[in-house]
Design goal:
Length: 218
């Protein structure tokens, strides 16, 4: 239960801080760099806040990667997923209540009318590649051979840089739970596009994790 609670709180914080920076801070005021820092900073904070309890996955794709890499069992993975999706939905609900609307909760998307209006193919490729790289950083920085105490910083900085590069493409997911919470409440195109933010991060997670599983990276 402590691990589930930690993952709930961690994912809640990630979505509240990250999406909240755009929804409550305002994209025009905070800017793409500010939003990127909010997502990265939330991960750094939670890595040191709950990392010792659950490992601070706060991302179903990361839990999937940990399972494939042999670092967690299937039962724990599913338990983490439940907590992560619940935490993301709760954070989106808080943002909806505070902002008084459900049209913009920091939802992910692609295509005409969404930020840079990148195509579905571009969005799919971006999310696969970035999730794979993100997973590689996570598994590498938390391995026994990595310098102790720096994983949270490495992971947070990586997430921030991914956002700097890709906010205009998809709003950046690399995390199905982060996409799920806002999309469920916003509905419409955000909900219709949600499949991509489940499929692409899953593929990316498998690619990154297999590099460790087969010991090409070890």
């Amino acid at each position: 239960m402590s691990k589930m609670l930690a993952e709930f709180i961690g994912t809640f914080t990630l979505v509240l801080f990250g999406c909240g920076s755009a929804v409550l801070g305002g994209f025009d005021n905070v800017g793409q760099l500010g939003i990127s820092i909010a997502f990265g900073g939330a991960i750094i904070a939670m890595a040191y806040g709950i990392g010792s309890i659950s490992g601070c996955h706060v991302n179903p794709a990361v839990s999937l990667a940990a399972f494939i890499a042999g670092r967690m069992n299937g039962r724990d993975m599913v338990t983490y997923w439940v907590a992560q999706f619940a935490g993301a939905l709760a954070a989106a609900a808080v943002l909806a209540v505070v902002s008084g609307q459900t049209t913009n909760l920091g939802q992910n998307g692609f295509g005409p009318g969404y930020l840079g209006e990148f195509s579905m193919q571009s969005a799919l490729l971006f999310e696969i590649v970035m999730t794979a790289l993100f997973v590689i950083v996570i598994l590498g920085s938390t391995s026994e051979k990595a310098p102790a105490g720096f994983a949270g910083v490495a992971i947070g900085v990586t997430l921030a840089v991914i956002h700097i590069v890709g906010i205009q493409v998809t709003g950046v997911s690399v995390n199905p739970a982060r996409s799920f919470g806002p999309a469920v409440l916003v509905g419409g195109p955000a909900l219709a596009h949600l499949w991509l933010f489940f499929v692409a991060p899953a593929i990316g997670a498998v690619i990154g994790a297999l590099l460790y599983r087969v010991r090409l990276l070890a």
